[in-house]
Amino acid sequence: MKTYLPNRFIVERDPARCIQCEVCVNQCSFDVNYRDADEDEVRSREENCVGCHRCVLFCPTRALNIRRTPLDYRENANWRPEIIEDIIRQAESGGILLTGMGTDKAHPIYWDRLVLNASQVTNPSIDPLREPMELRTYLGRKPDSLTVEPGSLALKTKLAPQVAIEVPILFSALSYGAVSINVHKSLARAATEMGTLFNTGEGGLHRKLYKYGANTICQVASGRFGVHPDYLNVGRILEIKIGQGAKPGIGGHLPGEKVSAEVAATRMIPKGTDALSPAPQHDIYSIEDLAQLISALKEATNYTKPVSVKIAAVHNAAAIASGIARAGADIIALDGIRGATGAAPKIIRDNVGIPIELAIAAVDTRLRQEGIRNQVSLIAAGGIRNSGDVIKAIALGADAVYIGTAALVALGCTVCQQCHTGKCAWGICTSDLRLTKRINPDIGAQRLVNLLRGWSLEIKEMLGGMGVNALESLRGNRLHLRGVGLTDTELEILGVKMAGA
Amino acid sequence: MKRVYSKEEVCIACGLCQVHCLVAHSESKDIIKAYKKETPRQPSRIKVQQKGSLSFPLSCRHCEEPWCVYSCLTGALQKDPESGIVTVDAEKCVGCFTCVVACPCSAIIPDFHRKKAVKCDLCPHLETPACVANCPNQALIFTDGATPGGTKVAAEGAVARR
Question: Which of B55, B25, B52 is CA-nearest to residue B38?
Fold first, then answer.
């Protein structure tokens, strides 16, 4: 069938700079750049270009540039080019449109409508370079009250397992199989160096990475891939994955081509078979069922590890979170609509779920009202882009945040949304051994450490400006936030005053 | 002695080592002039070897037993007794390419235009050889045998795989 899809990008090659070295040819995994043998010239098949910029950044003479095709449709606010082209694509394929990464639609980003406070005159700001600044966070169930031994002041209350993290930023679930072992290794090493945690995602943990167990969150998802006693006991935290912000209510599908021998061994499935994660966990149809799995996991690990439950932020997130806390979870991870994925139906990614800012505020408020906020730690995920977003999430009521896309961008991802193709030119979301080599874990870990270090320095600066010397003092303190350009209802749900008020 | 070692597990076969080797051995040391103005071009002294997902760049190992030096008819190839670096003296080289045949690594490149053998000289004019300095994935290291990061990087390994 002749395609009616136009090219998305133009590859501009400056002939004065191009030295015909073919680096662009060997770096493009989408078969765009090629050497025309007859003309002995490097050329581009622009219809294949996805705009990942690999060739642009690896060209030694910077002879390349990628631009959007300036093909204009007749102006129409309703029938925009993307909508027209999605219809064309489906008319030609007859299937569900798949995509990768988080939604690219203009859902309101409340982070950009929230502003932080700073101390002026009546309270002094603190210089983090001169005074200690505390970012350490303890994840896990906190007791309702503490009793201490009179005299010695030793703690009498038996505490539930607590996990200390030195920066309030964890790496989101990225499964081995979806991402390569080199990405997992980069995340694990960076988490270890920075005193935080990375999350295995639902694909299990490669045996080679067991040594990073103290900095690992081991996920148990609906497919139960790679879940066995060693796996559960090697991690620091266990996480039951109910849902994901990019595709609430939807399962997962790792195509058989990505299930290499190593991935198969880690996931405990035959090589080359599709890894299908059911949409629900088939043993969890109620809060009571969830309570059973939570206790089973606690029993399996001798009550030494906090159990987290991750849900996509949806309409009744607050009530669901209350149920999760009562089911015995120690941590609740909330993943908002802007959360990303390796593959999801585009229509789900762009339309299902609620923004994470509203979910954090609603859940924190609800748990406080019910007097059970201390029973769980709250981790916010889905579209955290910089340290400003982190600190606003914490002021709204989160204990820590997950970053996924930001971490991948640090590794080289340009958010070209081709994760589902398995051809990631940056070697991140692929299991093609020629491509996975493109992530050198030495460089990857360094880039991630640098990112976390930069963000933690910025967080300390912002805290100091507010006159706060510990992150704990900011947590859930929405008086440090004000809203700009928000409606009364939005302000009410966020629990934040209008700027100027 | 310090040699250039490759870490095949992170070599992405981009060929930038070859490009920058050529530039480092050009007249102008300018990438665009070296490719577009200087004819014939200097050949690269390093070549990426590739088969499927296995790839690594290969250049002169500056062997303890330099077969190229032994085979050289004119004495153009010499191993410096102090630095251990094997060099080719272009004045003396007659372009017979016996060394090309003798080299167990195929690391000596015949420059057919100039009728000279050329090979890696470890960029004496630079602090770090150009291939190492410009590798985008740190797949090349310049070291005297200690292996940073504990990765198995041996010239012998690269040879054994051929």
Answer: B25
The chain B residue lying nearest A26, using CA atoms, is: B14
CA distance A387 to A116: 12
The dihedral built from the CA positions of residue A472, A478, A481 and A485, taken in this order, carries a sign that is positive
Are A342 and A325 contacting, i.e. CB atoms less than 8 angstroms apart? no
Nearest CB among B12, B13, B31 relative to A19 is that of: B31
For tokens 């191009």, name the residue. Answer: A18
Do residues A216 and A235 touch, judged by C-beta distance below 8 A?
Answer: yes
**Half-sphere exposure (Cβ direction) of B72: Cα atoms closer than 13 Å:** 23
Burial of residue A68 (CB within 10 Å: 0-12, 13-18, 19+) is: exposed
Q: What is the pLDDT of residues A396-453, one digit of tens each?
A: 999 999 999 999 999 999 999 999 999 999 999 999 999 999 999 999 999 999 999 9
Q: In this complex, do B14 and A23 lie within 8 Å of one another by their Cβ atoms?
A: yes
Average pLDDT (A11-26) is 96
CA distance B74 to chain A (A): 34
Contacts of B21 in chain A (CB under 8 A): none
Q: Who's near B153: CB < 8 A, 6+ residues apart?
A: B5, B6, B7, B141, B147
- Residue B154: pLDDT above 80? no
Please indicate whether, in this complex, the C-beta atoms of A26 and B138 are within 8 angstroms of each other. no
Residue to test with chain A: of B7, B11, B16, B51, most A Cβ within 10 A = B16
Report domain extents, chain A: 9-95, 137-141+167-248+281-498
Of chain A, the percentage scoring pLDDT greater than 70 comes to: 100
Please judge whether A440 and B139 are an interchain contact, meaning their C-beta atoms are less than 8 angstroms apart.
yes
Q: Is the minimum CB–CB distance between B9 and chain A shorter than 8 Å?
A: yes
With an 8 Å Cβ cutoff, are A433 and B137 in contact?
no
At B38, which amino acid appears?
E
pLDDT band at A253 (very low <50, low <70, confident <90, very high): confident
Interchain proximity A27–B12, CB inside 8 Å? yes
Determine how β-strand A198-199 pairs with β-strand A216-220. Answer: parallel
Min Cα–Cα distance to chain A from B139, Å: 8
Mutate one of A17, A19, A59 to test the B interface: name it (highest B CB count within 10 A).
A19
CATH architecture for the domain at A9-95 = 2-Layer Sandwich (3.30)
The domains located in chain B, with CATH, are 1-59+125-162 (3.30.70), 61-119 (3.30.70.20)
Instruction: Please give the CATH topology (third level) of the domain spanning A137-141+167-248+281-498.
Output: TIM Barrel (3.20.20)
- Nearest Cα residue in chain A from B149: A442
Q: Do A23 and B13 touch (CB under 8 A)?
A: no
Whether the CB of B12 is below 8 Å from some CB of chain A: the reply is yes
Q: How long is chain A?
A: 501
**DSSP summary character for residue A237:** E
Instruction: Report how far residue A400's alpha carbon sits from residue A393's, in angstroms, rounded to the nearest whole number.
Output: 8
Residues in Cβ contact with B85 at an 8 Å cutoff, skipping those fewer than 6 apart: B1, B62, B79, B121, B122, B124
